[in-house]
Amino acid sequence: MTAPNKAEAEQIVRSLLSARLIACANVTDPVTSHYWWGGQIETSEEVSVIMKSTSALYPKVEAVIKAQHSYDCPAIVSWALTQGNAEYFDWIDQETQKTA
């Protein structure tokens, strides 16, 4: 996900963490984004956020982001993780299955 500023990114991340919809998030500030919007090429500084969750929780994560995000069309994408540290994947599962 990208956000217009660190405060908005962190507010969304805190909501998702509190609801146990994500186990972790990395907030990178700033990133320079180049994109098409309104028929022209735009450039802006944004905050990039990488969140760790499960595919089963994706619909809920997306709903929370859309409800709190200030963009008309927030960049919310998901990548399937097919390989990695099994212990880390177990940790994500454990932290997102606990009740808030």
Blueprint (SSEs and pairs):
Elements: E1 2-3, H1 6-18, E2 24-37, E3 40-52, H2 58-68, H3 86-97
Antiparallel strand pairs: 1-3, 2-3
Helix pairs in contact: 1-2
The number of helical runs is: 3
- Which band does the percent of strand residues land in? 25-35%
Strand order of the largest sheet: 1-3-2
Please summarize the sheet with the most strands. Answer: 3 strands, antiparallel
Global shape: globular
What does this structure look like?
With 100 residues, this protein is an alpha+beta fold. The chain has a single domain, classed as 2-Layer Sandwich (Alpha-Beta Plaits), CATH 3.30.70. 36% of the residues lie in helices and 29% in strands. A three-stranded antiparallel sheet has the order 1-3-2. Helix 1 packs across helix 2. The protein is globular and about 45 Å long. The two termini are 23 Å apart. The relative contact order is 0.25.
